[in-house]
Amino acid sequence: MKLTPIPSNASSVNAIFPESLARLALGCTIYDTSSSPEARVYCVDTDDRRLFIKTSTKGSLSTEAVMTRFFHHRKLAAEVLLYETLPTPDHLSNGGISQRDWLITGEVFGKDCTDESYLSDPKHLCEKMAAILHMLQEQPIHDFLIPRRTDSYIANAWSTCSRILSNATGQDNPTSNPSLTKDIDVRYYTDRFGTASVIDIARVFQEYSHLLASDTLIHGDYCLPNIILDSWKFSGFVDLDCAGIADPHIDVFWALWTLQYNLGTHDYDDRFLDAYGREHINEDALRAVAAAEVFG
Predict the structure, then answer these.
(1) Paired sense of beta strands 233-237 and 216-218, if any
(2) Which of 167, 176, 238, 281 is the most exposed place for a label (fewest CB within 10 A)?
(3) What is the reported pLDDT for 90?
(4) What is d(CA 266, CA 274) in angstroms, rounded to the nearest whole number?
(5) CATH number given to 109-296
(6) Which residues are noted in the entry as Mg(2+)-binding (predicted)?
C-alpha cells in the first residue's frame, strides 16, 4: 500500500471531506492511498487508531459496506464504523457541493501481499494464497441474504459478447464493426490459454458460461493488494465491493492473474494450482471466467 502524505490543515481538509468528517480528520496525519480513479481512499491516523476513509459516487459503496459488515462478522475484515451519503465539496463545480458516498472502516493489521517481505518468498506466498482461498470458500452461506452474483456477472459479459457474435462475419474476421472491440483486452484470456481472437473468446464464453455456479462465498477481486497478512498470518480482506455468492473459479482466476502480474512470471502458477488442488478446478469453467473478464 502506497502512502502519499497530504496536508492536514483546515483549508486542505475542508476541501476534501464533508463537514462532519473534516472535524475528525483535522490535525491528524493523513495519507492518500487511492489505487483507482473510481474512488479515493484516505488513511487517517487519529490519536488512538488508524482509520480508512473511502469515498465514491452516490450509492456506489453500498454493496461494499454490506459485504464488509458481513465479512467482519466472520472475522474476515475490518469493522465498518460509518457508511453515509454526505454533501461533499465538488472540485468540478467551482466550489459547489455534490452528494457522495463515504465509508469508514477500522484497520486490518499487517501488510498487504504486495509487500516485499511476501513477494520475496513466492512459493510460500502461493501456498498461503491457496490456503486462504480455501478458508474463504468453506465459509457457510446459509444465512447469507445478499443476492447471488453469477447471473449479473454472466449478463454483464454477455451484453458485449453477444454483440460481437452477432456482428461476426467469418471464422477469421472478429467483427464487421471494429469499434466493438477497441476497448477489449484479450490478454485476460490469452495470457493463460494462448492465442485467440476476440470471436474465439466470445465463442468460448457462449459455450462454457453455463458451467458457472452460484454456490460459494467469493471475494470477487482476489488479488494480492486485497489480502492482508501479519507476519504471514491471515489478518483480513479489504476492498470487498465485488464480494458475494458466485462461482469459485472467479477467485481462482484472479489469484493466478495477480501472482503473474506481481511476480512478473507464470513460473509459480503450478505451485498455486497444486496447493489449491487441481481436483477442485474445472478448466472449462476457468476458461469461461477468463472470457468473461475480457468482455466484462
Answers:
(1) unpaired
(2) 176
(3) 83
(4) 14
(5) 3.90.1200.10
(6) 226, 239
**Distance separating alpha carbons of residues 130 and 268, to the nearest angstrom:** 12
Across the range 62-80, mean pLDDT stands at: 96
| Three-state helix/strand/coil letters over 99-142 | EEEEEEECCCCCEECCCHHHHCCHHHHHHHHHHHHHHHHCCCCC
Percent of the chain with pLDDT over 90: 84
Q: Residues spanned by CATH 3.30.200.20 within the chain? A: 4-105
Domain limits, CATH 3.90.1200.10, in the chain: 109-296
Residues serving a catalytic function are: 221
Q: State the pTM of this model.
A: 0.92
Q: What are the C-alpha distances in Å from 103 to residues 40, 43, 159, 200?
A: 11, 12, 31, 41
Task: Describe the crossing of helices 249-263 and 122-137 by its angle, rounded to 10 degrees.
Answer: 160
Burial 19-44 (b: 16+ CB within 10 A, else e): eebbebbeebebbeeeeeeebebbbb
Residue 203 bridge partners (DSSP): none
Residue 121 labelled as part of a binding site: no
In the CATH hierarchy, which fold is given to the domain comprising 4-105? Phosphorylase Kinase; domain 1 (3.30.200)
Do 21 and 15 contact (CB within 8 A), yes or no? no
Angle at 213 between CA 139 and CA 246, to 5 degrees: 50
Angle between helices 269-276 and 249-263 (to 10 degrees): 150
Whether 239 has a binding-site annotation, put simply, is: yes
- Please, how many CA atoms are within 13 Å of residue 263, restricted to the half-sphere of its CB? 26
Cell of 27: 490535525
- pLDDT tier for residue 94 given thresholds of 50, 70 and 90: low
